[in-house]
């Protein structure tokens, strides 16, 4: 009888994946990133183990947005106090801090647990084409 193999945290091999965001649609980039961070692209995927790879996104400011999302989409924050809801336009967030926008979008596609938080730590976003992780990349 054959059993399904469950991956253990000690057996996971983590690679570094570089994604160039130049002229790619923002949402398509994020779905690809979330799949890689979770490890769903691997054959030994296990839901309760962080078996994903490290992801580096370069040229984050050169991504495209479909439709009028950049002008019309809003993000909301709330501190917990009455009347403290703040609205942030997507266009302002993309200009000021694109790294935060990418991480916020990827967080929405990951599990809302400690496991998801540890997966998000493996995402590195850079506005330009330079990144300090050249030593980790094979080949």
UniProtKB/TrEMBL annotation:
The keyword Ribosomal protein applies. SUPFAM superfamilies: Ribosomal protein L13 (SSF52161). Pfam families: Ribosomal_L13. GO terms for molecular function: mRNA binding; structural constituent of ribosome. Keywords: Ribonucleoprotein, Ribosomal protein. Gene3D superfamilies: Ribosomal protein L13 (3.90.1180.10). GO terms for biological process: negative regulation of translation; translation. The keyword Ribonucleoprotein applies. GO terms for cellular component: cytosolic large ribosomal subunit. InterPro entries: Ribosomal_uL13 (IPR005822), Ribosomal_uL13_bac-type (IPR005823), Ribosomal_uL13_sf (IPR036899). PANTHER family: LARGE RIBOSOMAL SUBUNIT PROTEIN UL13M, RIBOSOMAL PROTEIN L13. Part of the 50S ribosomal subunit. This protein is one of the early assembly proteins of the 50S ribosomal subunit, although it is not seen to bind rRNA by itself. It is important during the early stages of 50S assembly. Belongs to the universal ribosomal protein uL13 family. This is Large ribosomal subunit protein uL13. The gene is rplM.
